[in-house]
Amino acid sequence: MTLLWDNDPAAAERFSYAVGGDITRQDSHAALIRSLEDSPGEHLVVIGPDIDMQSACDLSEAVRVQRAEVGVLLLRRRLDVAVLGQALRAGVREVITADDLTGLADAVRRSRELSLKMAGHQDHAVKEGKVVTVFSAKGGVGKTTFSTNLGAYLASTGAKVLVVDLDLAFGDVGISLQMLPQNSIIDLVQMAGHLDEKGLESVVTHHESGLDAACAPAEPSDADRIPGQIIGELLKVGKRKYDFIVVDTPPAFTEHVLAAFDNSDLLILLATLDIPAVKNLRLTLDTLDLLGSPKEDRVVVLNRSDAKVGLRAEDVVAVIKQEIAVMVPNSQAVPASVNRGVPIVLDEPKHAVSLAIKELAESFIKPLAASDGRDEPKERRGQDEHARRRILSWGGRR
Predict the structure, then answer these.
(1) Tell me, what CATH number does 379's domain have?
(2) Which of 42, 224, 233, 352 is deepest in the core (most CB within 10 A)?
(3) pTM to 2 decimals?
């Protein structure tokens, strides 16, 4: 919650997306001070543009004495040297023009970071959820079914789980779970630069299994309107709300997929026992090396591992030069469960497919949550921007 001093009843709604979260508006100095006293966990006060300068400075000085860790941001119709000087002398952290909502969002972020440090709570000690991205450069290997079942299993253990459908043109997470989403990821575009938990909540759809889903747009053409930036924001905000985020992906290295890689704690690389899938898995591993993705942050899962097609798991290992973490058997029960809209891990928890997904979750994903919050995803962006641009230039689907 943010405290706002403004005489305009519509001000809270006007600034809500930029500030992030709920806003409590007060129309007097005294009322705001009382709210601050009643909200020991609040670290931000925003003073609206219609509050006169002297009153704004008086409030800032009072806040500085009463709660030094609380940041005060001042909105003005126009800025000049005199206003800036007077505000800074009164302890205002930043002065922003009232119509610069992006500037306000940035100032809010900086102020909150500083307040947390002053209060003795370093950002890196805050426990956040973990992002797990499921990827294959070949279509038809079962990514969506695997992702939704993984999410459903994690939710069944009591974890708060979000499944994100990054196949933005042709995603099937919603239909696989027989959900009818009212909103989708396309609705986040208008919140780019100031997405908060409230904004994320407005686009997710709740499933009866307990998981939430951020579904792909209904119209394939909307995919081109979604910038990679908003996917990064979605995942960063989601980590504050969920224990685990499972990202389902298209079979291509798009800017959205690379944004997911940048924010992932674990990459699950899915393959099947056919030569095109194994070839693409080998190319994927080489591409991840090119991007600087740490080898310890990826696992290989062999789906339909017992299919009698003349290729064995040992042959796959020989090609990719990496061990297979989990082998998921083939079963007609899986497409049958998809047609019913019930993940097999819930419909038949003792089924061999369900047990394989449980093994992966318990061995590789649940331990991620046991960390104390200090282990951030290793930085991938910027290690080789030339390689990144080259990969994006491949474009399209394989």
Answers:
(1) 3.40.50.300
(2) 233
(3) 0.70
